[in-house]
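Re-run with default settings, no changes from the original entry. Doing this only to confirm the output is reproducible before filing.
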Amino acid sequence: MIATCLTRCLSAFFTGTKTSSKFRARNLVLGAFLCTIRDVSRFVCADERLDDNSGGYGMNRKLVTYFSASGVTKRAAESFASIIGADLYEIKPAVPYTKEDLNWMDNKSRSSVEMKAPGLSSRPALADVDANISAYDVIFIGFPIWWYTAPTIVHTFLESYDFSGKIVVPFATSGGSPMGNISSTLQKVVPSASVRPGRMMNDRVSDQTLRDWANSFV
């Protein structure tokens, strides 16, 4: 709006009917002044747009990442990101999990083998590693709880990027397991980051409660 008005003023000054040297001098001085104001206003407006949590050099401070095998965590993550105004990134396995892979009652199922590897040493491959972690200060990471902890693909994700100086906050879904010591486990995976206590996303809480929780890390 400001830039449009200034442009009209400039046009009026330079296309006026007065042609004497006195009026031309006045128009040049005022025109230069208005051009300066116009350029400053454009710069300020552009800077505000880039600093309003929409990316660019203003930095979108919060990112919600998630791994979901059955869709439950996906729905929780999408709702959470929408509520707090954060960007969203899905952690995808190179080979998607099937229903048989998730059969925890089968000791030979894919998930059972991964989670029972000594020291949680299994590292399922990722479909991509193009998350722009460097653009964020706070990274929320969601997942279903498997065998009382985070799936090992979450470890793969954390080890695939530089989280130095970042705040990492886990959140989880589960049929009954609590968060337990998941934060301390993940802290060992990314020692250069600060992994904060997380929360379960099973129970419905108010949008404002989630906003307050998310903003407490900024």
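Residues 23 and 179 are 76 Å apart (CA to CA). The two ends are 33 Å apart (CA to CA).
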